[in-house]
Amino acid sequence: MERDEESSGLMMEMCTNGGGEETSNRRPIISGEPLDIEAYASLYKGRTKIMRLLFIASHCGGNQTMQLEALRMAYDEIKKGENTQLFRDVVNRINGRLGDKYKMDSAWCESVDRRAEQKKGRLENELSSYRVMKYVVLFMCCLVCLHRSFLVNHYLDNETNLIKESIRMGHNDFGDFYYACGLLSDAFKNYVRTRDYCTTAKHIIHMCMNAILVSIEMGQFTHVSSYVNKAEQNPETLDPIVAAKLRCASGLAHLELKKYKLAARKFLDVSPELGNSYNEVIAPQDVATYGGLCALASFDRSELKAFIPLRFFSLVAKVIDNINFRDFLELVPEVRELINDFYSSRYASCLEYLGSLRANLLLDIHLHDHVDTLYDQIRKKALIQYTLPFVSVDLSRMADAFKTSVSGLEKELEALITDNQIQARIDSHNKILYARHADQRNATFQKVLQMGNEFDRDVRSMMLRANLLKHEYHARAGRNH
Amino acid sequence: GLCSSEISITIGGMSSTENLITSIQGLSASSGDLSALHRILKGAEETLHADSDLQLSTLEQLDPSKHSLGYLYLLDVLTCGGPMSKEKASEVVLLIARFITSCDADQIRLASDKFVSLCKGFKDRVLELEDPLRGVAPLLTAVRKVQVSTKRLTALHPDCLQLCLQAKCYKAGFSILSDDILEVDQPRDFYLYCYYGGMICIGQKKFQKALELLYNVVTAPMHSVNAIALEAYKKYVLVTLIHSGQFSVSLPKCASTAAQRHLKTWSISHLQFNPMISAALYPILARSLYVAYNFYRSPFSQPYTEVGNCYNEGKISELQAVVVAHSSDFEKDNNLGLVKQAVSSLYKRNILRLTQKYLTLSLQDIANMVQLANAKEAEMHVLQMIQDGQIHALINQKDGMVRFLEDPEQYKTSEMIEVMDSVIQRTIGLSKNLIAMDESLSCDPLYLGKVGRERQRYDFGEDFDTVPQKFSM
């Protein structure tokens, strides 16, 4: 296809032109090869990096080296922060297997906890003093209103705003503090409390972004959706990066709630300017992977055509402005290949890519629960699409294309026929699938006759019941008289 | 003949019985005479009971076909007595049978209540003699004679059906069922008619009609669930499975609230009360019709709903397990045969599903998919279904392959056009009936009175001024 060549041509150009930027992310990370944990982890920052590493450690099966590598990196990362609970956790899991450098450091824990206590105390004091100030100022406002002194009024307004701002920042700081300590629900509560003290649109967006971040970490994706909506209702136009972040969050929420089509639409709407700016939640590779897989599983052919090649084409066009996106494209060549294969009906190759990616996708914290469903849906779509243009299909050739046995294929097709997704029947003797188009005329006649009979029965039953009721009514009336 | 005013019954002189015989012989010609005769007979009834002169032999003076009314009264007096010896009972039965066969329909319709009670007595005698077959033909005739129109249910319908059931003459019973009953006087008769009728249809394997009849009982308006409705419900569940393969726990919306609430859970088979065990106890069923069994809520029809739910899942082995677990319950209700038919219908339904997905399939594959024991059994089932017209297929015994065909009906033949035409005619006829019913109802004073009363409550405004003012109270 021409577009393919064009885009890959451009890609080649970019590769040769580039130079002097980070090379660490050059190699495809989501690919068929075993996951390069270091490269993967470098895509993220903050708490999600730790959580992802821990997830990999617990889901990598028997692979000891991978597990230890993940745990080691998690340990290092945790020590940069202030979450002693996580630290204890990871030490337990390492269990001494990484030597002395990676064992329990009680001194560190204690000092971190002590600092946390102090900070907490300080924040509380500040906040309560602001609150007191607020009430004092409010009281004075009332007095002033009574005296109607204009200047004093104006001065007090300013004071109120300043106090509001201080309280807001106080709660925000608290939120940040709790988040760093790992107390997510307290963090959430504090971020949400800033709502009452927000005075500008920017404040509201800030609050929403914080709330979204914590909700994602807590796994409460309904909150994510509602705060995204809140932020998007902003009357001013949003900063494009913020808009892109919101779409990512929204896409994630839909993905977790199994609404794959909506998730795909959101991810595909993420503007390429996102870059790495949201890597406390999601990496640009994830946007491409999640979006691509969800689209493949849920879009029909025309939607796929409208979106996918165009999407990547536009990403290519933007590449000139944004160097990060060279990495973006480079990092998901397998996903892009498999989408193209699906669209051009090269199902064997598409399913092969899917198979090779599976192990690594299962290590992804958000995709883990959905890999099987998505794969299943993609496979079903492939089967349906394969049979669509034909009057008859040789089952053994189809089985080869789908890398399965004829009897296995028969069972899959049977399920699809029962669900009415394929209009066909199987000739089990000769192993051929024949398309079957219902005869509308006969079906209509049959239905009409059936309806006539039903009407007959229903009306007669009804008249009998009416008769019985009438009799009863007469009998009762007879008794009354 | 002699006109009524000239007849008088003298006390002393001719005996009253002889007088009566004479009157009967004389007044049975025209309709005017007959109404006079009727009055005389009604007046003389009391004395006849006490009269010792009246014997079975007396009846020989009368001709049952010409003097039907009189014969009826006399016969009724003679045979309504209590227990009699087997020989006498046999004689009586024979006499009544002959009477029914030869009597004049117009005459007996004048005293239809008496005729009905005579026939019911006849039925009881026949059952006592344990020879129900003797009663089938006479009762069939009786029903036809006492019926005013084929649309109206008589009190004799259920008795006739009961005898047919006892005698296993399903065909005879089925001939009565082919009438469309639209008017019903006594709900009691109706419930029994539908229940027995349903059983006869099951015997004839006409499951659609059986379903219709049982449906009518289950959805009939009733304030409290009665024994018949409960038994009918159990059969209804099983027949639904056999006929349409879909079971839903909730009753159709048109069923009464009492039925909807209680049919699934009520039991009346407590051992102290009437056990629903043997056919001989059906009369007891009729008597217990209006008793509400509030106290016993053991889930007696639950085995049936369990079977229904299991059937919906479609797994043969589970269904069979449920059947085995509750087989004693089914046995008690005499429904075990029906349950077995339901189970075998599940196989058929599963095979039917296969025809939607496959063009050809080997017998062994069918056996595997439907969980039959081997290919031979599969062949048997498929053959049966082809013969019953449930599927269209060809079996190739050489390959052991079955080829499923489309329904060859093209809806182009003249027979099909006739069928469609008759359906259309029926529908038009039914619509006319409905409209007539609606019209008669809107003239019914009782109904108008009720609407008039309620009209105060609802302000329908100008549009609904259908009730004349005089009916507002």
Automatic annotation (TrEMBL), chain A:
Its main location: cytoplasm. Residues 1-30 are annotated as: Disordered. Keywords: Cytoplasm, Nucleus, Signalosome. GO terms for cellular component: COP9 signalosome; cytoplasm. This is PCI domain-containing protein. It is found in: Cytoplasm; Nucleus. It comes from the Eukaryota. Gene3D superfamilies: 1.25.40.570. The keyword Lyase does not apply. It comes from Brassica cretica (Mustard). Belongs to the CSN1 family. Pfam families: CSN1_C (PF21151), PCI (PF01399), RPN7 (PF10602). Residues 259-440 form the PCI domain. SMART domains: PINT.
Automatic annotation (TrEMBL), chain B:
Residues 206-409 form the PCI domain. Keywords: Cytoplasm, Nucleus, Signalosome. It comes from Brassica cretica (Mustard). It is found in: Cytoplasm; Nucleus. Gene3D superfamilies: 1.25.40.570. PANTHER family: 26S PROTEASOME NON-ATPASE REGULATORY SUBUNIT 3/COP9 SIGNALOSOME COMPLEX SUBUNIT 3 (PTHR10758), COP9 SIGNALOSOME COMPLEX SUBUNIT 3 (PTHR10758:SF1). GO terms for cellular component: COP9 signalosome; cytoplasm. Pfam families: COP9_hel_rpt, PCI. This is COP9 signalosome complex subunit 3. InterPro entries: COP9_N, CSN3, PCI_dom, WH_DNA-bd_sf. The keyword Transmembrane does not apply. Belongs to the CSN3 family. GO terms for biological process: ubiquitin-dependent protein catabolic process.
